[in-house]
Amino acid sequence: MTDTRALARDERAELGAFLVTLAPEQWDAPTLCGGWAVRDVVAHLLGYDPMGLGGFARNLARARFDPDRANQRVVDGLRDADPEVLVELVRRHEEPRGVGALFGGRIALTDGAIHHQDIRRPLGLPREIPSERLRVILDFAMVAPPIRAFVRTRGLRLVATDLDWSSGRGTAEVRGPGEAVLMAAAGRAHALGELDGPGVETLARRCDAA
After folding, report:
1. 96-106, pLDDT tens digit by residue?
2. Which single residue of 5, 111, 120, 140 could bond 105 by disulfide (Cβ 3.0 to 4.6 Å)?
3. DSSP 188
4. CA distance 36 to 28
């Protein structure tokens, strides 16, 4: 049985190792998350861990149960944190806590991997996600409500060409590297150019509408 908590720890450790290589100006560079710089995405990823589940619920209530507003509250709370503080936060919470630890750490793993790529892609700093980790991430992304991949890919068949993974029963196929499939299914149009198949046009429209 796959140890998904270990995979989540590995993902966060890899993120921490990457972040220490960034120049000061790269922390303020734009990401694929509209309106968020690198520092904001890191704050979003790790800002919930110190809260625990109770803090997560209170923050959501204060945001009137609007997830986007709740996420922005967390980011705003760490807006003035130095990069060293954010890196230490990643290192201190390699073992996910709170909401990220749910489903065997799959929330932290999947959210972390997608946002890791949100940072890397605009910086032109690609990486290869280990296939065992990517397969688990793809499976969970297809069913996780906040990601909405199941809405964007409805009626399509997704096929990763670099690992043994596929999803969906539709006749319109979308093929490409597993990481690009993940990112496009998560609404990142940046990855669409790496995909092919008759379903790409439909997925592109749904990414634009997200």
Report:
1. 999 999 999 99
2. 5
3. -
4. 9
